[in-house]
Amino acid sequence: MLKYFSRRVLVSLLTLFIVITITFFMMRAIPGGPFTEEKAIPDFVIEKMMIQYGLNEPLYIQYGRYLLNVLRLDLGPSYRYEGISVNEIISESFPASFMVGGLALVIALIMGIPAGIISALNRGKWQDRLSIIFATLGVTIPSFIIAALLVYIFAWRLGWATVGFWEGFSTAILPALTLSLYPAAFISRLVRSSMLEILTQDYIRTAYSKGLSKNAVIYIHALKNAMIPVITYLAPLTAGILTGSFVVEQVFGVPGLGTFFVTSINNRDYTTIMGVTIFYSALLVFFNLIADCCLALVDPRIKLQ
Which of 20, 28, 42, 235 could form a disulfide with 291 if both were Cys (CB 3.0 to 4.6 A apart)? Predict the structure, then answer.
């Protein structure tokens, strides 16, 4: 086990190093710079700003200095938000994205897993067809359409919610519901297809022959193995959903990480782009490691060696 974790940590660090390197040089390869669009600023002022942030130095020096700063967990200052570091941007905006994303993940699991089980146990019946319709709609309808529909129904027509500003948990429900529909639909399809395959296995028939009840066979033996593809899918899903969605955050006025990330791309804010990318990559690597451990607990045939 220790050998496995040591190897995975080394692979994770190598992955983060590759992400940092590719992102750094891709940002520098884009024509122009973070201050080139400021047409009202004189050239000598832009030159001083380039000197202040070290952007006039050779590329290898900038790269080496940035690597050293990342090792100290210092993601540098933002080029567009004066006096604010990238660490502060992430620490201030991620809690909102985490609240919305965490709630969306819980909703997706609560909706998706039971829908998949019911669909598999009632194959060809109206429950199955209803689940297929739900999954199809959840996957095909864009998130901004769902967001607009929820705003119209719950905020405008019913007056049960407020949108356009952030008040914490009470304003996180609608954006979380919007974010949850796609993963809930996808999870229901994964659970359904996996359950249909598992219910035909020999060990399921053996469990029935031993006199076990239907609920015991389904929820103890079948569902445990049916969750394997879901756990694999949850690793990238969790990292992505916790870092926020720009469209959903814009519609509902959530001051999350997704908004800052897209804005930094438009502004060519190098340090913010790289900082958020590194943060997202670290989350993805971490949740992949957690998923591997969960798979080993769910399926004893998987050994962490």
Answer: 235
